[in-house]
Amino acid sequence: MTGRRPSLAVVGATGVIGGVMLQILSEHADIWGEVRLVASPRAAGTKLVVRGEETEVLPLSEDVFDGVDVALFLVPDEVSAQWGPVAAGRGAVVVDDSAAFRMDDDVPLVVPEINPHAARVRPRGIVASPSCTTLSLIVAVGALHAEFGLRELIVSSYQAVSGEGRDGVAVLREQLALVAGTELGTRPGDVRRAMGDGDRSPFAAPVALNVVPWAGTDAGDGWSSEELAIRGECRKVLGLPGLKVTATCVYVPVVAAHSMSVHARFENEVSVARAHEVLATAPGVVLFDSPGAGDFPTPSDVVGTDPAWVGRVRQSMDDPHAVDMFICADNLRKGAALNVAQIAESVAGEFSRT
Question: Which residue ranges does the record assign to the Semialdehyde dehydrogenase NAD-binding domain (predicted)?
Fold first, then answer.
């Protein structure tokens, strides 16, 4: 079986992240044998193009995983929770993008630039990928951790509406159409009133002409699930169970690419010059940091690209062990599909060595 090309299933192929995954599979080296596209029964029969070939989407069922070596799950938590173990039981290595298994002790949480070895130990046959918010910052922070020893993170996220999928993007565009050419945004509550009851919106408040300091669900004590996810996932990926992490997650009127303001404190003293050297050579990171010349990352400039872009690197004015920085990354690429693809590619290497 030396050199065998493993078979692949993409579950959720018709979704937003699924569409990005099909692009990535067509762009990356062709290491796969058969590629099966899978979605809910209502989407079955749709034809999508992957690797230059038109492929019919199959309905999600137990039998669809027969003969599949690696199954990518790009679906909501409840779908992964139900069907991920089914695929693993049929012999597939599952790489899951949802939150269903991220904090399971028997499921590795993997970022290939940081802990690729973790993907090889998978008691349940499942490998999890972190959330898009964690992935937007973890590659850059992980590189600095390896050099200086991370002790504390204070993070504010500026999240794109595509974090809520197609519905999030549609709501933003509808709201922008309502406010365009008006004088809204000058009186208390006028934007909210213009939006109506907002029953269709996945956001807790209007996102057009606004920022919304809430992402995820209520996790108790004033925290949201996404804020606690950043905390738990950074600790697990970096292998730092006692890492101090505080996060505030905010939606902003941006279609795609999350931004993060990060205060990182380290065990050792850190200088901007040395931090620049580390970031400039870190895999998956682009250093873009000359603010006097207008060079710093913004979501509209990095959308559609793979790396985490880092700028505004500053020495803390009060602490020689800390730096502050601004990071942007496409939440649909590195924040979702790309990281899953990278994990799957590392798993595929196991078949070529068999």
Answer: 7-122
